[in-house]
Amino acid sequence: MEFGMQFFPDVRTAEKPAKQYFDESLKLIELCDPYGYTHIRIVEHYFHHWGGYSPNPIVFLSAASQRTRTARMVTGAVLPAFNHPLKLAGEIGMLDAISGGRLDVGFARAFLPYEFRHFGVSMDESVARFEEGIDQVAQLLEKENVTCKGRFHSFENVTSLPRPTQKPRPNFYVAAVGTPESFERAGKMGHWIMAIPGVGSTPSELVQIYREAWRSAGHKGQPKVMLAVFMFCHENRATAVALAKPRIERHFESISDAVAEHAKGTLSADYKNYDKMVAKMRQQTFESQVDHHAAFVGTPKDVIEQLHEFDKAMGGVDHASLQVNFNDMPYADAERSVRLFGETVIPHFAGGKWGQIGARA
Q1: Span 2-126+172-354 CATH architecture
Q2: Which residue of 142, 167, 271, 327 has the smallest Cβ count within 10 Å?
Q3: What are the tens digits of pLDDT across the range 221-237?
Q4: pTM of the full predicted structure?
């Protein structure tokens, strides 16, 4: 299991202005190379304090790529429903070049009703726009002189620039929120998956659905799983819980507000059972997140034990994407946690002579 940092802004301007949020996040990224964090990931969302500071993950990742020489940049994830494939392919090629070929591209369907409404896009077109968008972006990255006649976007004899640094293109992830259909779709498409345990159906079952769909479709290689979780590490367990618990629960208050329209019932055939998923989100507590292997909080020893249970429950996890400065977490507390995790937990999973818990555990 490898560990990276995920940035999911969930603050109002009065709590932490955007300049402060991004200054702090970029400072945390400078700790990647000394401690072995292997990826940086950020979302694409709009119009709401839950994620809305990051309308374009490629902008943030361009800056982030200059603060680390080794960590990979991960869009977590771009939304084809709201982006023209010609523009998106060009931006991906540009970030792949700026990062020196350290880009992995995550795509998501989008699921927040107000985003669709403000962009003038029908939620009933969600799956179709998603599948067409990924296919067209892949063609633009892999080939030159591309012609596509799509339902939503068409173009003729186009060569996207700059050409990808990685050949034939960066690897693709597909984001899945919490429904079996999303996990099965990702496996059939042959892309890696990024998901969130503790939301939707039983996460271990969803991951198994993804792996079975991958194998049934006959794809080569091994599917990779990246799971987004909360992490807060401190020498004192009670202090860790006191600092993390209210901020994790406020994060779920924010998401419950952002997805509130889904609670009214099925808004589209492309979003079946999202009302049930929203009901589950509203029931989340700090304790339920820990129980569902979605939050790792405590001393280094606690966190190591939790992560071993997590890896076993999921049948193996390739990448844990750690939210390290969630909600209004003060920078000093986030930095201390990131350093302690890097000193004690990452070496344990790396094995070898460094795979022992130090005295600070």
Answers
A1: Alpha-Beta Barrel (3.20)
A2: 167
A3: 889 999 999 999 999 99
A4: 0.91
